[in-house]
Specification:
Layout: E1 10-13, E2 25-28, H1 34-44, E3 51-56, E4 72-76, E5 80-85, H2 88-104, E6 110-115, E7 121-127, H3 135-147, E8 152-156, E9 158-159, E10 162-163, H4 181-192, E11 197-204, H5 209-214, H6 241-257, E12 262-266, H7 273-277, H8 279-288, H9 293-310, E13 314-318, E14 330-333, H10 338-345, E15 350-352, H11 364-368, H12 376-388, H13 396-401, E16 419-426, H14 436-441, H15 444-452, H16 459-470, H17 477-487, H18 492-498, E17 501-503, H19 508-520, H20 540-543, H21 549-553, H22 559-570, H23 579-597, H24 602-606, E18 615-617, H25 618-624
Parallel strand pairs: 2-3, 3-5, 7-8, 7-16, 8-11, 11-12, 12-13, 13-14, 14-15, 15-16
Antiparallel strand pairs: 1-6, 4-5, 4-6, 9-10, 17-18
Helix pairs in contact: 1-2, 3-4, 6-9, 22-23
Length: about 625
C-alpha cells in the first residue's frame, strides 16, 4: 500500500521503470492554469520530478461547483510524469498525490494511478460562532483540506453567542468579532484556487439570541447577549411577514459574497416554548392548519427555501427539518443512523455527519468504521458496538440517551444513491483558534478517506499512513502539541508524558458531571456547565490530542518498552505538574506501579480506564489492546 492519504482508487506498480530525474518543469498540453502551477510549486519544488506534462481537458471556471469532475490520471513517463484530468480540480488533486509520493516514498515504484472521489461532497464544518477564528487561521485550514482532498468548508457563521457576517442591510447584527464581506470574498477566492467550495450557514429559526439582541422585533421576548452554551429559547417569529422579509434580505446579501449554489439555513434545536405560548403563532396554526410546533417550523422552512429558490440558491438544513410536508432541500444528518434513511425515503439528497463529530474526541478508528452508504442496520449495530467499547464506557449512559433519535426510524431500505457525501463537524464550544489545529487534524483524515476512497480500507494501514501525514506540513501535528504545551510551561519530559493523556469523550467535558447526569435523566441544566464563551482554553487538557497516537504505538511494544515507560512515569514529581493534571498523573503512576510490581492484570487495568478529572489514561487501553 502506498503511503498516501486518502487511499487511491487504482494503482499500477512497476518497479522496473526508471525513476524520473532532473529539475521539475511543466509542459502544458492545453491551456495553462495558475492554480495548478501554484500547487506544483508548493508540493514539488523541493524535489526533482523531471518534466510534468499536464493535460486538463476542461477549465470549468474559477469557482468549484458541486459535481465537478475531480478525477485524474497520473502516469510515469521517460521524461517525468504526465497528469491527465477532466478539470483543473482533478489536476490539483493529481499534484497533491504526486507530492505525497515524493514526500512519503512511493514515487519510484508507481507506473500509473487512476483516481477519483467516491462522493462529490466531502466537507468539514467549522463553528466560528462560539469562538471566532481569524481569516489567517481559516486559510491554514484550507491548506490542510487541500492536502486531504476535502472540497467543502462549511462555515457556521451564526449562533446564539455571535453573528459573524457583516450584513450591510442590518448592520447591528454583526458581533464585535466578525468577517467583513471583503474578507469573506477573499477567502472564497483562496479556497477556490485550491478546489474548495465555501458554504455559509446562518442558523434559523432557532439559535438566534445574537439576532434578537440587535433586532428584538423579530422575536417575542426581550433577550440579552449570552455567553452560555446549550439550547436557548430564542427563536424568530414565524407569523411575522417583516421577519420573512428581513431573513430573505440577509440571505440574498449572503449570496452576493458566497457564489456557491448551496446555502445552509440551520433548522436545528428549535426550542418550542415561545411558539407554544404566543397568540400570533397560535393564530397562524389555525389559519394554515399547522397541528404542532414541527408543522410551524416546516412552514417557516418552506418560506425560506422558496425565497432562496427565487434567487437561484439551494437550501441545506439539519435533520430536525424532516416533516411529512417538507420542501425539497438537502438534509444534513446528525442525529444518529436513522435520520439519514428518513431523508432518503423522501427522495431528498443527504449529507452524512452523524458518525463524524470531531468535537466528541472519539478516536479516528471510530469515525473510520462508518461507511456513509452502509445499510441502516449496519450503522445501528456500529452505534451499539461503540456504546460497548471500553474507550466510551465512561459515557455509555449518555450514548444510551441518544437512542431516542431512533424512535421515528423507517423499516424500508431507501435508495442510498441519495447520499451525496458527508461532512465532519467541529463544533467550537471547546475549540478556539489556538487549539483548532490539534482538534481538527487528528481525526479529519479518517473522514476524508471514507469520503474519497472506495470502502474496504484497513484501519491498521490507515494509522500507518496517518502518522506520516500528520508529521509533515501543513499539519506538523506532534510539533504543534509540543509547541503549545511548552508555551504554557510544561517541561520537555512533561510534554512527552502529556501525550499519553486524552480528554474524556462525548460531551463529558463540555457538560460536566452535573449537567451530564441531568441530560441522561431527561432534563438539562445549562447553568451547571463548566464552560462558557469566555472560559480560557489554555490548559494541558486543551492542547493534548483527542487520540493519543503515542499510546497507540505502545500496543506493539515489548515488555521491556512497557517497563521503561512505567519507570519514566514513576520518576515524575506530581507536584511539578499543573494542579488540574495532578490527579491524572497520580492515576498513571498507580497504573505504572502495578506494571513494575508485576501485579497488573486485565481486571485491575480496567479500574484505571475512567475519568481522572477531564483526562483519560490512554496507556491503559493500549495495554489491554496490546498485540
Amino acid at each position: 500500500m502506498l503511503n498516501t492519504l486518502p487511499r487511491l482508487y487504482s494503482v499500477e506498480i512497476d518497479k522496473s521503470r526508471r525513476s524520473p530525474s532532473g529539475a521539475t518543469s511543466l509542459r502544458w498540453l492545453r491551456d495553462a492554469n495558475v492554480a495548478i502551477e501554484a500547487r506544483v510549486d508548493l508540493c514539488l519544488s523541493a524535489y526533482e520530478t523531471g518534466m510534468i506534462e499536464i493535460d486538463v481537458a476542461n477549465i470549468v471556471g474559477e469557482v468549484p461547483r458541486f459535481g465537478d469532475d475531480e478525477s485524474y490520471r497520473l502516469e510515469k513517463t521517460e521524461q517525468g510524469w504526465r497528469i491527465s484530468a477532466g478539470s483543473q480540480f482533478g489536476g490539483l488533486h493529481a499534484v497533491t498525490t504526486l507530492g505525497q509520493l515524493y514526500r512519503f516514498g512511493g514515487f519510484a515504484e508507481v507506473a500509473s494511478i487512476d483516481d477519483q472521489p467516491r462522493y462529490s461532497w466531502r466537507g468539514v464544518l467549522l463553528d466560528v460562532a462560539r469562538h471566532f477564528v481569524s481569516v489567517a487561521a481559516l486559510r491554514r485550514v484550507i491548506d490542510g483540506l487541500a492536502e486531504l482532498k476535502i472540497n467543502v468548508l462549511h462555515l457556521h457563521l451564526t449562533d446564539d453567542q455571535a453573528f459573524r457576517f457583516e450584513c450591510k442591510a442590518f448592520p447591528r447584527l454583526a458581533s464585535n468579532d466578525h468577517y467583513s464581506q471583503d474578507e469573506l470574498q477573499d477567502l472564497v477566492g483562496y479556497a477556490s484556487a485550491r478546489g474548495i467550495r465555501v458554504i455559509p450557514e446562518l442558523d434559523v429559526p432557532g439559535h438566534v439570541t445574537s439576532w434578537l439582541t440587535a433586532y428584538p422585533e423579530w422575536g417575542f421576548q426581550k433577550v440579552v447577549a449570552t455567553d452560555r452554551f446549550g439550547v436557548h429559547q430564542a427563536c424568530l417569529d414565524p407569523s411575522s411577514e417583516p421577519v420573512y422579509e428581513a431573513v430573505t434580505q440577509i440571505f440574498v446579501e449572503l449570496a452576493t459574497v458566497f457564489p456557491d449554489d448551496y446555502v445552509h439555513i440551520g433548522g436545528d434545536e428549535v426550542h418550542p416554548a415561545w411558539w407554544s405560548e404566543d397568540q400570533s403563532v397560535k393564530a397562524l396554526q389555525v389559519e394554515k392548519g399547522l397541528v404542532d410546533g414541527r408543522a410551524v417550523q416546516n412552514y417557516f422552512t418552506t418560506r425560506i427555501v422558496d425565497a432562496l429558490r427565487e434567487h437561484s440558491k439551494k437550501a441545506i438544513a439539519w435533520d430536525e427539518v424532516l416533516h411529512p410536508d417538507m420542501p425539497n432541500l438537502v438534509v444534513q444528518n446528525w442525529r444518529g443512523a436513522t435520520s439519514r434513511d428518513r431523508a432518503l425515503d423522501k427522495g431528498l439528497a443527504c449529507i452524512i455527519s452523524a458518525p463524524y463529530y470531531l468535537d466528541l474526541s472519539f478516536p479516528a478508528d471510530m469515525h473510520y468504521a462508518f461507511d456513509p452508504s452502509a445499510p441502516q442496520s449496519e450503522w445501528v449495530a456500529l452505534e451499539d458496538e461503540q456504546q460497548q467499547d471500553l474507550r466510551l464506557g465512561h459515557v455509555a449512559e449518555g450514548l444510551e440517551w441518544t437512542k431516542q433519535w431512533r424512535d421515528d426510524a423507517i423499516e424500508t431500505d431507501p435508495d442510498l444513491s441519495g447520499v451525496i457525501g458527508g461532512e465532519a463537524c467541529l463544533w467550537s464550544e471547546l475549540v478556539d483558534e489556538q487549539t483548532l489545529a490539534i482538534r481538527l487534524w487528528s481525526r479529519l483524515p479518517a473522514v476524508a478517506e471514507q469520503l474519497w476512497s472506495e470502502p474496504g480500507g484497513d484501519v491498521r494501514d490507515f494509522y500507518i499512513r496517518l502518522e506520516s501525514l500528520l508529521g509533515a506540513p501543513p499539519f506538523n501535528h506532534s510539533a504543534e502539541i509540543s509547541r503549545q504545551l511548552t508555551r504554557i510551561g510544561l517541561s520537555e519530559t512533561q510534554v512527552e508524558i502529556a501525550r499519553y493523556f486524552e480528554p474524556v469523550k462525548w460531551y463529558g467535558r463540555l457538560l460536566g458531571q452535573q449537567a451530564l447526569e441531568a441530560r441522561i435523566a431527561g432534563s438539562e441544566m445549562p447553568q451547571a456547565r463548566p464552560y462558557r464563551v469566555g472560559t480560557p482554553l489554555d490548559r494541558v487538557i486543551d492542547f493534548i490530542s483527542p487520540e493519543s497516537l503515542s499510546a497507540r504505538a505502545l500496543r506493539k511494544a515489548n515488555e521491556a518498552t512497557w517497563l521503561s515507560f512505567a519507570e519514566g512515569v514513576l520518576a515524575e514529581d506530581v507536584g511539578a505538574w499543573p494542579e488540574d493534571v495532578q490527579m491524572a498523573v497520580v492515576g498513571l503512576q498507580e497504573f505504572a506501579q502495578l506494571m513494575v510490581d508485576g501485579t497488573l492484570d486485565a481486571e485491575r487495568a480496567v479500574e484505571y480506564y475512567r475519568p481522572f478529572g477531564e483526562f483519560m489514561l490512554a496507556p491503559v487501553h493500549a495495554w489491554l489492546a496490546r498485540d
